[in-house]
């Protein structure tokens, strides 16, 4: 929500695939180059100033989220999308 364009909001879809859960999160943003997209999971990477919109942070959120997902046997990935949309896919196994 912090980086989504005003009034565009975000979409969250969740579904079960056999023994796993998939959550897809998309939000509209200013256009993001492929170079920037390739660095989004890098620790301490904050993106271009136009995208951070004066929002404070350390650049650790996505890298930590991915590590937590992987520690639980899943993954967090950036999905291909238009330059004005960021789509992340969280996949986690169901543990019984």
For the structure shown, list the relevant keywords.
96 residues, 4-stranded antiparallel sheet, 32% strand, single chain, 20% helix, Heat Shock Protein 90
What's a quick, concise take on this entry?
20% of the residues lie in helices and 32% in strands. The protein has 96 residues and is an alpha+beta fold. It has one domain: Heat Shock Protein 90, CATH 3.30.565.
Can you describe this structure?
- By secondary structure, this protein is an alpha+beta fold.
- It has one domain: Histidine kinase-like ATPase, C-terminal domain (Heat Shock Protein 90, 2-Layer Sandwich).
- The protein is 20% helix and 32% strand.
- It is built from 3 helices and 4 strands; from the N terminus they run E-E-H-H-H-E-E.
- A 4-stranded antiparallel beta sheet has the order 1-2-4-3, with helices on one face.
- A hairpin with a 5-residue loop joins strand 3 and strand 4.
- The chain is globular, with a radius of gyration of 14 Å.
- The N and C termini lie far apart (31 Å).
- The mean pLDDT is 81.
């Amino acid at each position: 929500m912090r980086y989504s364009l005003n009034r565009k909001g975000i979409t969250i879809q969740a579904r079960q695939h056999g023994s796993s859960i998939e959550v897809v999160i998309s939000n509209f943003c200013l256009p993001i180059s492929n170079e920037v997209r390739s660095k989004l999971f890098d620790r301490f990477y904050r993106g271009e100033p136009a995208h951070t919109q004066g929002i404070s942070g350390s650049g650790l959120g996505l890298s930590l989220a991915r590590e937590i997902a992987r520690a639980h046997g899943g993954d967090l990935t950036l999905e291909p999308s238009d330059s004005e949309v960021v789509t992340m896919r969280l996949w986690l196994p169901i543990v019984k």
